[in-house]
Write a structure and sequence with these properties.
The structure holds 2 protein chains of 2 kinds.
Chain A: E1 3-7, E2 11-12, E3 18-25, E4 35-41, E5 48-53, E6 59-61, E7 69-74, E8 79-84, E9 93-101, E10 113-117, E11 121-125
Parallel strand pairs in A: 2-11
Antiparallel strand pairs in A: 1-3, 3-8, 4-5, 4-9, 5-6, 7-8, 9-10, 9-11
Chain B: E1 9-12, E2 18-23, E3 36-40, E4 47-50, E5 64-69, E6 72-77, E7 86-94, E8 100-103, E9 107-111
Parallel strand pairs in B: 1-9
Antiparallel strand pairs in B: 2-6, 3-4, 3-7, 5-6, 7-8, 7-9
Classes of the chains: A mainly beta, B mainly beta.
Chain lengths: 127, 112
Protein backbone atom coordinates (compact mmCIF):
# COMPACT_ATOMS: atom_id res chain seq x y z
CA UNK A 1 0.00 0.00 0.00
CA UNK A 2 1.39 3.36 -1.04
CA UNK A 3 2.55 5.60 1.78
CA UNK A 4 3.96 9.12 1.98
CA UNK A 5 6.50 10.30 4.55
CA UNK A 6 7.70 13.85 5.09
CA UNK A 7 11.21 14.54 6.34
CA UNK A 8 13.32 17.60 7.06
CA UNK A 9 14.39 20.05 9.77
CA UNK A 10 11.81 20.90 12.40
CA UNK A 11 13.36 24.30 13.11
CA UNK A 12 14.33 26.97 10.58
CA UNK A 13 15.67 30.45 11.26
CA UNK A 14 13.89 33.54 9.92
CA UNK A 15 15.02 34.62 6.43
CA UNK A 16 16.43 31.16 5.70
CA UNK A 17 15.07 28.46 3.37
CA UNK A 18 12.71 25.72 4.53
CA UNK A 19 13.46 22.39 2.82
CA UNK A 20 11.31 19.27 3.07
CA UNK A 21 11.24 15.95 1.23
CA UNK A 22 8.38 13.51 0.75
CA UNK A 23 9.28 9.87 0.12
CA UNK A 24 6.80 7.66 -1.72
CA UNK A 25 6.87 4.01 -0.72
CA UNK A 26 4.85 1.02 -1.86
CA UNK A 27 4.02 2.43 -5.27
CA UNK A 28 5.14 4.45 -8.27
CA UNK A 29 5.75 8.19 -8.37
CA UNK A 30 6.12 8.12 -12.17
CA UNK A 31 2.51 7.81 -13.22
CA UNK A 32 0.38 10.05 -15.35
CA UNK A 33 -2.50 9.40 -12.94
CA UNK A 34 -1.12 11.45 -10.06
CA UNK A 35 -0.03 14.88 -9.02
CA UNK A 36 2.13 15.25 -5.92
CA UNK A 37 1.36 18.13 -3.59
CA UNK A 38 2.41 20.10 -0.54
CA UNK A 39 -0.21 21.48 1.86
CA UNK A 40 0.36 23.26 5.15
CA UNK A 41 -1.61 24.04 8.29
CA UNK A 42 -0.52 26.74 10.78
CA UNK A 43 -1.18 25.79 14.41
CA UNK A 44 -4.89 26.08 15.16
CA UNK A 45 -5.72 27.21 11.62
CA UNK A 46 -6.99 25.79 8.35
CA UNK A 47 -5.41 24.05 5.39
CA UNK A 48 -3.49 25.96 2.72
CA UNK A 49 -2.50 24.43 -0.61
CA UNK A 50 1.13 25.23 -1.47
CA UNK A 51 1.64 23.61 -4.84
CA UNK A 52 1.67 20.57 -7.11
CA UNK A 53 4.15 18.72 -9.29
CA UNK A 54 3.63 16.14 -12.02
CA UNK A 55 6.13 13.31 -12.55
CA UNK A 56 7.26 15.10 -15.71
CA UNK A 57 8.25 18.15 -13.63
CA UNK A 58 5.35 20.44 -14.46
CA UNK A 59 4.43 22.59 -11.47
CA UNK A 60 1.58 24.73 -10.15
CA UNK A 61 1.92 27.05 -7.17
CA UNK A 62 -0.36 28.99 -4.85
CA UNK A 63 -0.17 32.57 -6.18
CA UNK A 64 0.32 33.92 -2.66
CA UNK A 65 3.49 31.82 -2.23
CA UNK A 66 4.70 31.52 -5.81
CA UNK A 67 7.59 33.96 -5.50
CA UNK A 68 9.12 31.94 -2.64
CA UNK A 69 8.27 28.32 -3.50
CA UNK A 70 9.99 25.64 -5.55
CA UNK A 71 8.72 22.07 -5.81
CA UNK A 72 10.86 19.44 -7.53
CA UNK A 73 10.72 15.70 -8.14
CA UNK A 74 13.35 12.96 -8.24
CA UNK A 75 11.69 9.93 -9.77
CA UNK A 76 14.79 7.74 -9.29
CA UNK A 77 14.56 8.22 -5.53
CA UNK A 78 10.73 8.28 -5.50
CA UNK A 79 10.83 11.63 -3.76
CA UNK A 80 9.47 15.10 -4.27
CA UNK A 81 10.66 18.17 -2.41
CA UNK A 82 9.59 21.59 -1.21
CA UNK A 83 11.77 24.65 -0.82
CA UNK A 84 10.32 27.82 0.70
CA UNK A 85 12.73 30.73 0.89
CA UNK A 86 12.85 33.83 3.09
CA UNK A 87 10.69 32.28 5.79
CA UNK A 88 9.10 34.20 8.65
CA UNK A 89 7.17 33.16 11.74
CA UNK A 90 4.04 33.12 9.59
CA UNK A 91 5.44 30.06 7.80
CA UNK A 92 5.35 28.02 11.02
CA UNK A 93 3.01 25.14 10.26
CA UNK A 94 2.51 21.42 9.92
CA UNK A 95 3.52 20.59 6.36
CA UNK A 96 1.80 17.69 4.63
CA UNK A 97 2.67 15.94 1.40
CA UNK A 98 -0.25 14.43 -0.47
CA UNK A 99 -1.23 12.67 -3.68
CA UNK A 100 -3.82 13.98 -6.11
CA UNK A 101 -5.74 11.34 -8.01
CA UNK A 102 -9.20 10.32 -9.17
CA UNK A 103 -10.63 6.82 -9.34
CA UNK A 104 -13.23 7.96 -11.86
CA UNK A 105 -12.06 7.30 -15.42
CA UNK A 106 -11.68 10.14 -17.91
CA UNK A 107 -11.94 13.02 -15.42
CA UNK A 108 -9.64 15.94 -16.05
CA UNK A 109 -7.13 17.01 -13.41
CA UNK A 110 -9.20 20.00 -12.28
CA UNK A 111 -11.58 17.54 -10.63
CA UNK A 112 -8.96 15.44 -8.86
CA UNK A 113 -8.75 15.22 -5.08
CA UNK A 114 -6.20 14.43 -2.37
CA UNK A 115 -6.64 10.71 -1.71
CA UNK A 116 -3.47 10.01 0.25
CA UNK A 117 -1.71 12.16 2.85
CA UNK A 118 1.51 11.91 4.80
CA UNK A 119 1.37 12.21 8.58
CA UNK A 120 2.72 15.75 8.45
CA UNK A 121 5.77 17.38 9.95
CA UNK A 122 5.85 20.48 12.14
CA UNK A 123 8.24 23.19 10.99
CA UNK A 124 8.83 26.07 13.38
CA UNK A 125 10.43 29.30 12.19
CA UNK A 126 12.32 30.85 15.06
CA UNK A 127 15.74 32.22 15.87
CA UNK B 1 -6.17 32.76 1.86
CA UNK B 2 -9.26 30.53 1.71
CA UNK B 3 -11.73 31.30 -1.03
CA UNK B 4 -14.35 28.75 0.00
CA UNK B 5 -16.43 29.83 3.00
CA UNK B 6 -17.64 27.42 5.68
CA UNK B 7 -19.33 28.07 9.05
CA UNK B 8 -16.72 28.02 11.85
CA UNK B 9 -18.67 25.50 13.89
CA UNK B 10 -21.74 23.31 14.00
CA UNK B 11 -22.98 21.08 16.80
CA UNK B 12 -25.55 18.42 17.44
CA UNK B 13 -26.58 15.73 19.85
CA UNK B 14 -25.82 12.08 19.17
CA UNK B 15 -28.16 10.70 16.55
CA UNK B 16 -29.01 14.08 15.08
CA UNK B 17 -28.33 15.37 11.58
CA UNK B 18 -25.96 18.25 10.93
CA UNK B 19 -25.00 19.97 7.70
CA UNK B 20 -21.95 21.99 6.72
CA UNK B 21 -22.09 24.46 3.85
CA UNK B 22 -19.25 25.42 1.52
CA UNK B 23 -19.76 28.55 -0.54
CA UNK B 24 -17.59 29.58 -3.45
CA UNK B 25 -17.86 31.75 -6.54
CA UNK B 26 -18.54 31.53 -10.23
CA UNK B 27 -14.89 30.74 -11.00
CA UNK B 28 -14.76 27.85 -8.56
CA UNK B 29 -17.69 25.71 -7.47
CA UNK B 30 -20.02 27.68 -9.74
CA UNK B 31 -17.87 26.92 -12.77
CA UNK B 32 -18.68 23.23 -12.48
CA UNK B 33 -15.59 22.08 -10.61
CA UNK B 34 -16.07 19.22 -8.22
CA UNK B 35 -16.10 19.68 -4.45
CA UNK B 36 -14.38 17.24 -2.14
CA UNK B 37 -14.58 16.91 1.64
CA UNK B 38 -11.96 15.93 4.21
CA UNK B 39 -12.26 14.96 7.87
CA UNK B 40 -9.44 15.86 10.25
CA UNK B 41 -9.53 14.18 13.63
CA UNK B 42 -7.55 15.91 16.40
CA UNK B 43 -3.80 15.56 15.92
CA UNK B 44 -4.04 13.66 12.65
CA UNK B 45 -3.72 14.31 8.94
CA UNK B 46 -6.86 15.04 6.93
CA UNK B 47 -8.66 12.06 5.44
CA UNK B 48 -10.73 12.01 2.26
CA UNK B 49 -14.43 11.78 3.14
CA UNK B 50 -16.34 12.67 -0.04
CA UNK B 51 -15.02 13.08 -3.59
CA UNK B 52 -16.68 14.37 -6.70
CA UNK B 53 -19.43 16.18 -4.78
CA UNK B 54 -21.21 13.07 -3.54
CA UNK B 55 -19.06 9.94 -3.76
CA UNK B 56 -17.83 8.08 -0.69
CA UNK B 57 -14.48 6.26 -0.75
CA UNK B 58 -14.48 2.68 0.40
CA UNK B 59 -14.75 2.49 4.18
CA UNK B 60 -16.55 5.79 4.73
CA UNK B 61 -19.90 5.21 6.47
CA UNK B 62 -23.04 6.09 4.53
CA UNK B 63 -23.93 8.49 7.36
CA UNK B 64 -21.81 10.95 5.42
CA UNK B 65 -23.25 12.43 2.23
CA UNK B 66 -22.41 15.33 -0.05
CA UNK B 67 -24.26 17.48 -2.53
CA UNK B 68 -23.61 20.48 -4.72
CA UNK B 69 -25.82 23.13 -6.28
CA UNK B 70 -24.74 26.28 -8.06
CA UNK B 71 -21.93 28.00 -6.20
CA UNK B 72 -22.37 25.98 -3.00
CA UNK B 73 -21.88 22.48 -1.69
CA UNK B 74 -22.97 20.73 1.50
CA UNK B 75 -21.83 17.88 3.69
CA UNK B 76 -24.44 16.12 5.79
CA UNK B 77 -23.82 13.82 8.72
CA UNK B 78 -26.84 11.81 9.80
CA UNK B 79 -26.99 9.78 13.00
CA UNK B 80 -24.22 11.89 14.53
CA UNK B 81 -21.75 9.89 16.63
CA UNK B 82 -19.13 10.94 19.18
CA UNK B 83 -16.38 9.78 16.81
CA UNK B 84 -17.54 12.33 14.23
CA UNK B 85 -16.23 15.19 16.36
CA UNK B 86 -13.56 16.67 14.10
CA UNK B 87 -12.72 19.46 11.69
CA UNK B 88 -14.15 19.25 8.18
CA UNK B 89 -12.80 20.97 5.07
CA UNK B 90 -14.20 21.35 1.58
CA UNK B 91 -11.86 21.66 -1.40
CA UNK B 92 -12.22 22.57 -5.05
CA UNK B 93 -10.40 24.11 -7.99
CA UNK B 94 -9.95 27.79 -8.78
CA UNK B 95 -10.57 28.21 -12.48
CA UNK B 96 -9.29 31.79 -12.44
CA UNK B 97 -5.81 30.64 -11.44
CA UNK B 98 -4.50 27.77 -13.55
CA UNK B 99 -3.77 24.70 -11.51
CA UNK B 100 -4.80 26.20 -8.18
CA UNK B 101 -6.50 24.09 -5.57
CA UNK B 102 -8.43 25.82 -2.81
CA UNK B 103 -9.66 24.74 0.60
CA UNK B 104 -12.57 25.92 2.65
CA UNK B 105 -12.11 27.77 5.91
CA UNK B 106 -12.95 24.66 7.91
CA UNK B 107 -15.78 23.71 10.26
CA UNK B 108 -15.49 22.25 13.74
CA UNK B 109 -18.20 19.68 14.45
CA UNK B 110 -18.98 19.23 18.13
CA UNK B 111 -21.06 16.33 19.43
CA UNK B 112 -22.99 17.55 22.46
Amino acid sequence: QLQLQESGPGLVKPSETLSLTCTVSGGSISSSSYYWDWIRQPPGKGLEWIGSIYYSGSTYYNPSLKSRVTISVDTSKKQFSLKLKSVTAADTAVYYCARQHDVRPMTTAEHWYFDLWGRGTLVTVSS
Amino acid sequence: QSVLTQPPSVSGAPGQRVTISCTGSSSKIGAGYDVHWYQQLPGTAPKLLIYGNSNRPSGVPDRFSGSKSGTSASLAITGLQAEDEADYYCQSYDGSLSGSRVFGTGTKVTVL
